[in-house]
Amino acid sequence: MTGQVRLEREGPIARVVLSHPGRLNAMSRAMWRELREAFVSIQHDTSLRCAVVQGEGDAFCAGGDISEYAQFRFEEASLRAFHEEDVWGGLSAVLDCDLPVVACIRGACMGAGVEIASACDIRIAADSASFGAPIARLGFPMAPREAQLVVRAAGEGIARQMLLEAAVLDAARLYTLGFLQHLVPADAWKARCDEVVRRIASLAPQAARLNKRTLRALREGNQAELDGAYRYAPAAEHREGVAAFLEKRKPAF
């Protein structure tokens, strides 16, 4: 069965589901394009407050769909187009999303899965999840911008171990090293994901979007964005948050 990336909306929450039955949700070339389309749609929907990325079934994403590789990997131009247009198009759309993006991870999170998780803001994993990028076994390296993304999220030491040893690491190790923000028993994983997502969706949506823009501007050195950091001063959401605190009531965001 052909894989797909589904976008589901549940009130203020967007759920992006990686689905490739029988392949542990491995990313096909079409799925990378669909990932980009999903996040472009999310970015332009002002009714949304949080986005979730998860795999269908018992895996997050086991990597790329190797069955497609012979179609494009053995010529430099087509390989470059795959990584720089398809893969980076999907990853950059996640990175550019102004909503908080939560990765809910269980089972295999390998290669492309690690890259997608690295593009998210908050990572929640079941304690049975496993992580790695053992592509050295397939005879090729990680593309430069994808490697930079993983280094930034997981740290250079972990990236080197995944790539140079083809190591598969358990969730407890990645939680200890800060790649994961939440580590929970497998039977509590869904409840914790729902709890975190609901908490984020209950907070000030404008503040979340501004925080995302500020963090992106700091990473990219975008001084023009930083120069406008205080333009929110007269905003209704700003006034409501402060007023609710002083009046000892729940804010109406």
UniProtKB/TrEMBL annotation:
GO BP annotations listed: fatty acid beta-oxidation
UniProt entry keywords in alphabetical sequence: Isomerase, Lyase
Record bears the keyword Lyase: yes
Pfam families cross-referenced by the UniProt entry: ECH_1 (PF00378)
Keyword Transferase on entry: no
Transmembrane segments: none
GO molecular function, a single term: lyase activity
Family: Belongs to the enoyl-CoA hydratase/isomerase family.
PANTHER family, sorted: ENOYL-COA HYDRATASE, MITOCHONDRIAL (PTHR11941:SF54), ENOYL-COA HYDRATASE-RELATED (PTHR11941)
Protein name (database record): Enoyl-CoA hydratase/isomerase family protein
UniProt source species: Ramlibacter humi
